[in-house]
Specification:
2 domains, four-stranded antiparallel beta sheet, three-stranded mixed beta sheet, 4 helices, elongated, Carb-bd-like_fold, carbohydrate binding
Length: about 200
């Protein structure tokens, strides 16, 4: 009998381990990946999460939403990657509840188009506003009058994909602030509403 007990325990150990694993509490991390610059959602961001030596990943949807499920309690390193944005890492600790409906900000990499480049253009009196109106580009009859009156040039990317769209928005919004400070709000009455960043 004594010889059979170790054998019996050896046979039962995988079943006991599996039962403990199946009963272990799991959690969810979810939310929306957004631009730290504008708060706009970032579509199709790549999200990887690492715990100890195990790394897994998923992709956000077209609205920046993602869900990481079947996670056990502990600390996870989350990494967010998207074209036109800086890789962003954060550490999150799961204890006894899910972390859901949270915004996860990702830093924008702005070079040619940025708040700083807009201020440089304003000081140099070569103010621009950038559009992405489709193909063919949309022209408003009021564009020429607006450009002449407020000394602003419209540049239209048509249907080209702009990976750093948030940078374009940041540039435009800096120009909007300048126009408000210089002309009050009257410029808005004759302004086309489809310029990115305009509210």
């Amino acid at each position: 009998m004594n010889h059979k007990l170790p054998l019996l325990l050896t046979l039962l150990m995988p079943l006991i381990t599996t039962a403990q694993s199946d009963s272990q509490q799991t959690y969810i991390i979810s939310g929306r990946v957004v631009s730290a610059l504008t708060g706009n959602p970032i579509p199709y961001c790549q999200i990887t999460y690492k715990r100890n030596s195990n790394t897994r990943g998923t992709d956000g949807d077209s609205l920046g939403n993602f869900t990481l499920s079947k996670l056990t309690a502990g600390s996870y390193n989350l990494s967010f990657k998207a074209i036109g944005y800086s890789d962003t890492d954060t550490t999150i600790t799961l204890t006894d509840h899910d972390i859901t409906n949270r915004n996860w900000p990702v830093r924008t990499t702005c070079t040619a188009l940025s708040q700083d480049s807009a201020l440089i253009d304003i000081r140099a009196n070569r103010i621009k506003l950038f559009l992405q109106s489709g193909d063919p580009p949309v022209r408003y009859t009021s564009d020429k009058r607006f450009s002449k009156k407020y000394r602003v040039t419209f540049y239209d990317f048509g249907d080209l994909i702009i990976h750093n769209y948030d940078c374009l928005v940041a540039y435009n919004q800096t120009v909007f602030k300048y126009l408000d400070q210089t002309y009050g709000r009257k410029w808005r009455t004759s302004f086309r509403p489809d310029v990115p960043g305009y509210k």
